[in-house]
Design goal:
about 230 residues; mainly alpha; elongated
Length: about 230
């Protein structure tokens, strides 16, 4: 991993730690949580999101080409390293695909146009689509997007597209796994977040020490526990 990648990971992990401290597992908008509740199958061994991930992580909205681009883009935003999961490991693609087919369906045209503009910019600048560029070239493209200097973007703007995909990458990396990302609690383990613990004591809430209680759990596990108790 390059120093640039390490710096990016450190910044994003620090951002996620802050978000977790403020909002717990609430890194997903209410609309997406409601959509997920509508699609849950209570008698199934896995959620719709988990089953979708097992089927390849896309196809609810994204086609194969767009899925490859989103995967590469998200991985440059949150790059993995040996022993350190990145966006690909955490199933960010699965999260974004499901969100665009559900709660974020109003952003479908935004993504279609943004991905088309991204591909056109890369082909004009490097004669290759984004997914086929080197990591250094991909970083150059992302930097140009972030600075509003990438050519060929009208709507969405280059900055608007970057900011949206970055936000969704963070959500897919650190939200509860029930929404399709954060596979195997990769994001939570990375930041030391203990999950949807229902019985935090006042001392736990005030403590700055690592939580030493029950193991990491997600919303689905908490739901099953509640059902068994009733």
């Amino acid at each position: 991993m390059s120093k640039h990648d390490e710096s990016r990971r450190a910044f994003l992990i620090g951002t996620a730690v802050g978000a977790s401290a403020v909002a717990g597992a609430g890194l997903v908008p209410t609309a997406l949580a409601q959509t997920n509740e509508q699609h849950k199958a209570t008698d199934a061994p896995a959620t719709t999101a988990q089953a979708h991930a097992h089927a390849g992580g896309h196809g609810a909205f994204l086609n194969d080409d767009d899925a490859v681009t989103i995967t590469a883009f998200a991985e440059r935003i949150m790059p993995g390293a040996p022993g350190k999961p990145g966006a690909r490991d955490a199933g960010v693609l699965n999260y974004i695909d499901l969100a665009l087919a559900g709660a974020y369906s109003d952003l479908q045209d935004f993504y279609r146009r943004g991905l088309a503009a991204l591909d056109a910019h890369c082909r004009t600048t490097y004669s290759k689509p984004f997914a086929q560029l080197t990591a250094a070239q991909q970083d150059e493209v992302i930097t140009a997007l972030e600075g509003g200097k990438a050519t060929g973007f009208t709507w969405p703007s280059a900055q608007g597209f970057f900011n949206t995909v970055r936000t969704h990458t963070m959500e897919g990396m650190f939200a509860d796994p029930v929404y399709g990302g954060n596979k195997d609690f990769a994001g939570w383990i990375l930041v030391g977040f203990p999950g949807a613990q229902p019985l935090f004591s006042p001392a736990d809430l005030q403590s700055r020490d690592a939580f030493a209680g029950a193991p990491i759990v997600g919303l689905q596990a908490q739901s099953k526990t509640s059902v068994r108790r009733t």
